[in-house]
Amino acid sequence: MLPSLTLNIGFRYELTTRPVERYNRQSNWDTATNQLVVATKDNRSPSLNLDTNDVGPRVGLAWSPDGGKTSLRAGFGISYWQAYWTGPLTILGLGYPNYAKQELLSSNNLTPNLLLSRDGLPLASAEYDQAGNLIIPANAVIRGTNADWKSQEVAQTSVNLQREIVRGVLLDVGYLSVRGLHNNHTTNVNQAPPQPPGVDYNLARPLAQQYPQLGDIPVQFSNTASWYDALTARLVAQLNNGITVSASYAHGRNFANGNNIDQTNLYQYYGPTQQDIAHTFSAQFTYEFPLGHGKRFLGNANRLVDALLGGWQYSGFLTIRSGLRFNIASEVSLLNNGQSNRSNRICNGGLSDPTVNAWFDASCFVDVLVPDTYGNTGINPLHTDALQQLDSSLFKTFKLTERMNLQFRADAFNTFNHPNFAAPDATVGDPSAGQVFSTSVDNRRMQFGLRLFF
User: Fold this and answer.
1) Residue 189 belongs to what domain range?
2) Does the pTM of the predicted model rise above 0.70?
């Protein structure tokens, strides 16, 4: 468009067809009619509509107001992830009447009741009444995918300002936004609401009158979302003294819905994900020691000294980040509907100086002892230990012939053997609640290697 402005516009359209099986051995629970629909030759993907809205625009621009030392870059794009493979493709073929759990127990633990040579494979089969209606037995495995299931959509926006501070040093600051839409979420469409003590909750299931023999009916929807926003910075430097550095930092937040117990309220426990990492810093750097021929020191050394001391390089990768988030579990539930519950949070629980024996104040979380009441503890309320790790490599390449080189390297992972602690026991009521028993990374590991180039 202009000498200082570049604009890129793109468009992508994706169409993921509905899954079919060679012999139509698929079924789906239709949430509109509350019926199990079996595939036929005329309806090979039962109760599943074709998603035709996977439109992915792309827009990007780069503008330099001063001839190249400063540039502004921005971009926006929509893409689609293949959540399809964990959605309709697997679900439609794993339900009654084409899938069944069968137990075949021998009477004496020696003689099998089933012989493949005699009986063949025990295949699931549909049952029909005299009128030709499908019979759903009490032990039937019912699964489903919502008819309006959509591909998972990711919308990403970025804005970056880059500036060459001095020759060989580039600074980049920016903003990144990632929106996840139509994320997979399983809802039990036959989930009973919380019931008073002593009541048979199976009688309170939404479909109890129509299907008294059925229990849970998990159906996958594409109705949840996630949000990630971050301020970013990156520094790339290539200095004259043999040092190269590439460092990046991000201050971000990551939230999602769909962590609900109440099947009708996707935002019941809306909150941070386990990957809600506030601060992340990483740096990769190399240093070429100024020793040996052509270097600042020992430039006139003999071949033996140069072979021993010259040409060594160091490479390091440093990671420092905030701790991951973790959940608080409760093993007590008085919901009386077959569901587990969350605890109640009566104080903050975080400690200013956590130790492996008391990572958080376990007394701040208690079981809910009031029937029919959901716990108020939010999702992932506390943080694990922060991560600090340096991985190092020391290496040198020996020239054997004109075309053959041998590289020796010594690697040290977690060089300083820093203990990065894993999540503590976070189950309410456990005697060890709040205590840490393991680390999140291995102890220091060292390895030596030779690599031949030719």
Assistant:
1) 1-69+79-103+119-151+180-224
2) yes
